[in-house]
Write a structure and sequence with these properties.
189 residues; 80% helix; 8 helices; globular; mainly alpha; single chain
Length: 189
């Protein structure tokens, strides 16, 4: 139980203000909150399981720069996709957020890529070297989901009150910012 609480607290605090938390907020303005939370939970379970299994030693061998560049390009793709939209009325409120398999896949993939090699992944790896692995896996997963649930709640609340055009601009700008940040980090600029 001690490893669970320690992992939860460390990951929850590390996730506050992180790019994935802002990304969760952006996704929640366009998709159902439950869809966003399910996608975040699934990708976090997988990512943290990998973090715990891999551990700190093998993590050093992974080409995180290449992964960051790929993630940056994916985020720029999400920005373009968001701006192109789905042909809905841009001045209408976003009163019916979307859900579905493609939304789950897009959100889950983006979240996984954003977190891969991030400080929370590395923290979970480090904790797993000294603490009980299953407790670290569950604690870090619950900590990350709890931190992002806050952002999802805020995004869902504002998403139904804003015109589609504003949501598209906000989400696209957020994806461009994350994409450029990941490209800069990955390319070492």
């Amino acid at each position: 139980m001690e490893a669970f609480v320690l992992s939860f607290a460390i990951i929850f605090l590390a996730e506050m203000g992180d790019k994935s938390q802002l990304m969760s907020l952006a996704f929640a303005t366009r998709y159902r909150a439950a869809t966003v939370l399910v996608a975040i939970t699934a990708s976090t379970l997988l990512l943290n399981a990998g973090s715990v299994i891999v551990g700190a030693t093998i993590a050093r061998a992974l080409p995180t720069d290449l992964i960051q560049v790929a993630a940056g390009m994916v985020f720029l793709g999400f920005a373009a996709w968001t701006m192109l939209g789905d042909g809905s009325d841009e001045d209408a409120p976003n009163d019916e957020p979307r859900s579905g398999r493609w939304a789950l896949l897009a959100i889950g993939s983006a979240f996984f890529l954003a977190e891969f090699g991030d400080k929370t992944m590395l923290a979970a790896m480090t904790l797993a070297t000294t603490e009980e692995p299953i407790s670290v896996w569950l604690g870090s997963t619950f900590g990350m989901v709890a931190a992002n649930a806050i952002a999802v709640a805020i995004g869902a609340a504002i998403g139904t009150r804003l015109p589609q055009r504003w949501i598209k601009l906000f989400a696209s700008a957020a994806f461009v910012a994350f994409g450029v940040l990941l490209l800069v980090q990955g390319l070492g600029l």
